[in-house]
Amino acid sequence: MNNLEAYKMDGLGNDFIIFDKRKKSISLTKDQIVKISNRNNIGCDQVIFIDKDESSNAFLKFYNSDGGEISACGNGSRCVAYLLMKENNSKEISLRTKVGTLQAELSDKNLVSINMGQPNFEWNKIPLIKEMDNKNLQIKINSIDGKEMTGGFSLSVGNPHIVFFVENFNQFNLKEIGPKIENHNYFPEKCNVTLANIKNRK
């Protein structure tokens, strides 16, 4: 692999290596993406490619650290949007992905927000390995003190997510739970794992 120019960026705990194909053609194999993503190398959660697009500011492709392509990523898109905003001296950017065009805005506090559109709850669009109740996948997780809870609300916002609603975040070790659930056999494309707490139902 020749020397390639890339950006390394972080968005809310996820880190990305970003290649800009608009000026120079770049093609990486699955094995090369895996090698770059490895934490013993540069290391990242995802590799992103920026390409030219006629209908928006750029077209994005996303690859997980195992080399598999995914449709979109909110935090990765935010990082790319920030780069393009600085490049174009603009507070608004549109990015086309496999799930559609995402609109990004830069706030007065220099923070990027992005509209990921409507989530998808269809089991085969998330996707899940088979048809099942996406509102309760009956996946078990354990709290720090060993108590077991069962649940899991799944959806897609361009890539698969599962949400566990808990009463107390401090009772769960997400760093321990995350990798186990991420690779659960219900999710053929893996998934992002989130803990959520309902403050009120208004």
UniProtKB/TrEMBL annotation:
Entry-linked Pfam families? DAP_epimerase
List, in alphabetical order, the GO biological process terms annotated in this UniProt record: lysine biosynthetic process via diaminopimelate
**Which major enzyme category is it?**
isomerase
Keywords (alphabetical) are:
Amino-acid biosynthesis, Isomerase, Lysine biosynthesis
One CC-aspect GO term: cytosol
For this protein, what reaction is catalysed? (2S,6S)-2,6-diaminopimelate = meso-2,6-diaminopimelate
| The enzyme's E.C. designation | 5.1.1.7
Molecular function per GO: diaminopimelate epimerase activity
Q: Which Gene3D superfamilies match?
A: Diaminopimelate Epimerase, Chain A, domain 1 (3.10.310.10)
Q: What InterPro entries does the entry give?
A: DAP_epimerase_AS, DAP_epimerase_DapF
> Quick check: keyword Oxidoreductase in the entry?
no
Pathway per its UniProt entry is:
Amino-acid biosynthesis; L-lysine biosynthesis via DAP pathway; DL-2,6-diaminopimelate from LL-2,6-diaminopimelate: step 1/1
Family stated for the protein in its record: Belongs to the diaminopimelate epimerase family.
Which protein are we looking at?
diaminopimelate epimerase
Give the species: marine metagenome
